[in-house]
């Protein structure tokens, strides 16, 4: 399909140009033998160059320019050379604006030099050069507008692909986040209780006062644990109070709490820590000090945070342990260091940890300094003015140049004396035409103002004709400015606020243009060389209104049609994005609810028993319930870790990617949901396919079936001569919109072909023997 699209237009252009070479085709002065061979060579070069316009647009443009020079020199009156227009359009669609500007300059320069060689210093040369410049500017502007539309569609496809990727991973991400938070809660609170109570139990004979302190600490910490767990999983939301204290103060309070456990801890940190990096520092410090409490009881610790070159450097270091901590090795869940690294990576930093020369332990983290610099959204906003920095100026310049070139072309038949006599008036009229089209530069930002300015400048012509004796043959050139009114009406329909309120635009433009032309004729005193009176002026205004009314109405309708298509595509993208984000929220909420139930059964009951035992003063029971809560927490964290790794198990291996063999399970899951989905050709198609091809096939079918169609669907896989053919029927929502865009990009990444039929059928061909690029939702933008 892509090959047909590449070669169909070049072959049609070659066929049309070749028909002119046929004897009796209608052109006078058929070329002789050498000229004929030159034209045929130019056609062959142009066709070959245009065939590569999608993959190598600049080379295609260079080839078509060579064909223009060759064909123009071989047969100046017969070779058309439309290939350069097509090639320039392809350059504008696929290349940045600076490249397009240079390409326009090169094409116009070649055309001007060729015209000067062919025509010599004649009046027609100036008009031909103006027409050439206007046509190529218009072509480049249309290509730039197309490039922006494609870039917008690709951006929407990438945005939606990211949302769907987040939807698929939302449950895993939420599970990992909750695992990290739960580990911090268990390590900081429950481990502290166990260590404190064990120390008080060992020293109760020599230090009986420690028992009361340990019981008070266990009651207070148990209550904090309950509150933290309830806030984490969304339980008892009414008791959730957001902590608005500065992060520096919270870190200092955390360090002071460890100091109250009987260990010397010093801290030095800035007073204005804020943002995600400060949150990560709080979690890392809590984990590091808890590890020091567990494995180096009684050892001094130091916390240092300093700024350097826009970064926050955190150091948590403890001295060697004075004595081994009894039973400390069984208190942890084995995720402390990994959790600290995950926190640092989530904030955009990195973390290292290891022993010191003295036998202690040091944790170092480098994080971006985000204090006082809230994330800016400016980089994500679309710059509409820069998007159209070539399209709108090119259209405005073309609207200025084409009427002027039309006027210059008509003066070619005049005598030299007539041209000299009318030169001042001709320059004034050309200036009026340029001024008339100038407001089009702002047609997107203020379409109604542009229409008003265009209609106002149209009346400058009658004023000039009435105030200054402009010859009739020159005054007639002002009619060419009616093209500007049509473009202004289109701008109001396409970009004006409220499409239902743009209907006055054609109603205002029709009598405005008719009356302006009539006023010009009345001021000149003649129409087409015939004198006119009041009756003739009224008849002329009525006739022009009748003729121009349908034209402006059609232009207005085209603007509304294009606008509605664009808005419909944007609305569909927004709906699909919102739907994906909603499903991601639901997946995360499901994980939270599942964790809430697990916590309620496994951990919260033990923690409540711990608080009750502390209030009763039973030190032994406090120790037992704290260890039971830690064991339950560790078991739950192990289960969450296995789930987060996709059931990989203790080894931490990721689950294998889905393959063609998993399509049967996918269709079965859809059938269990009430949708009729059938799969055919699976065993034959899946035989000896490369793994990457199998992943691509699964993702393509998954995206097509997941577009949201409620009706029955059929999936057929066939393998013929090294090509795997995928046919999916009954997926109307997958053959258009963002789903189709993502499928096209994904199939193109696998060097395949795709055909989306309006009837709801999707046909994909993938090379079965060649390992394609990794399956992905979108590819890098070709417009960057």
From TrEMBL:
Pfam families: HATPase_c, HisKA_3. Keywords: ATP-binding, Kinase, Membrane, Nucleotide-binding, Phosphoprotein, Transferase, Transmembrane, Transmembrane helix, Two-component regulatory system. Residues 174-239 form the Signal transduction histidine kinase subgroup 3 dimerisation and phosphoacceptor domain. It catalyses: ATP + protein L-histidine = ADP + protein N-phospho-L-histidine. Gene3D superfamilies: 1.20.5.1930, Histidine kinase-like ATPase, C-terminal domain (3.30.565.10). Its EC number is 2.7.13.3. The keyword Nucleotide-binding applies. Residues 279-369 form the Histidine kinase/HSP90-like ATPase domain. GO terms for molecular function: kinase activity. The chain crosses the membrane at residues 31-51, 58-75, 123-143, 390-410, 422-441, 448-468, 474-493, 505-523, 535-562. The keyword tRNA-binding does not apply. This is histidine kinase. It comes from Streptomyces tricolor. The lineage of its organism: Bacteria, Bacillati, Actinomycetota, Actinomycetes, Kitasatosporales.
